[in-house]
Structure formats: structure tokens, C-alpha cells
Please model this.
Amino acid sequence: MRALLGVELPGYQRLDTGDENVDAWTDGNGNGDVVSLHYFALPPDLPAALDDGPTLRTTLTHWTAQAGGGLIEASVKKLGGLPALRQILKLPLPQQPSGQVFIGSFTVPRRDCSTVLKIQAPERGMTGMREAVVMAKVGPEAYFRSHPYAPDVQGGLPFHAADHARWDEEFPEHPLTRVRRTLEALAEAVTVEPSFAAQPPFAGPVPRDPRL
Model:
């Protein structure tokens, strides 16, 4: 099922994924940014209902850290009129000595299925400039912070001041800035396919049968 419509942003070119459940496009500016649309014919793998913000954010923070990354933002927004989980996270660039890839996504869960709209933007060339400039401006003591969603989280990439949206204007071509900008464009452009919207809503994860 193509659950979302209007995903093809201007300037992006279609990629052949070889998977009928995944559509993908890459930007035409040579940045390596990729927008992808995924459909899952399974109950959503979310730790809580969308109206349980504290459990959702805390668990997602730990999950991301366990995967070696860091959760930057998580909130519930409307996408095409349906409630969606909006996330921005960072992961180390695979097989690279330094650098990060920033990933933004909207997860639109229904009871028995879900769709995920994702933008990923990698660092290229010299990395760490945004972080170095921000640390010089705010000082090391104000730069590193405990995670607001899970102060006890361990491992993964650190939570710090340079990832805040207030610095996007100063670094307009940084991959994190591009991710936020693309998420905003997608939020304005996307509509929901009626048959997907008609699916029963997601009320939270189904409790596991202790006998299994």
C-alpha cells in the first residue's frame, strides 16, 4: 500500500529500491540526502501509545543509545491529518572514522500496520565544524547536557547544545539543518491515502502473552 501521497519533493530523483514496500528519492544537489517511504503490514513496533509522551520519549532515547546513536527530538505531530511520531536522531557514519548521519522521520501508526517517512542526511567532507563553533560560543560546561528525555541514559552519542534548532540558521547547509527543513516541507506536502486513514487507530502496543 502507498499510504502517503505527495512525498515526491521538488529536486529529488527517484531511486530503485527493488522493494515494493519502499519508495526512495535522492536530492539533486549532491548532498547524498535520501527520502524514503516505508510500509509495514505489521502492528507498529512502538513502546507506547502516542498520547503517552513520557514513556515514548524515554524508551526511544534508550533504544537509540543502545543502537549507538543519540535521540535529538521526539514529538507527536499531525501528518496529513493523522497523528504521527516525529523523530530526529543521529548515528555514527558506518565504516567511517568520524562523522554522523542525521535521520528524521514521521511514523504514522495504525492498529495493524504503519508507514514511515524518513529523511537521512550524512556529513561529508570536514566534519564537526558545527559542534566546534557552538562549543566555543557556549563553553564546555554548557555544551554537554544530560538528556532531557532520559537523564540516566548511557552509551550512544552524547546530547549537546550544537544539535539545538537555534543554530540551524547559522549552519544552513549542515545535514541536521537539512533534515529539519525537509521534515517541514514534507509536513506541508503530504496527504494520507484514504484506505490507510480508514484503518483502526493505534492504541498502544499489544501486551505479550506471558505463556508465549
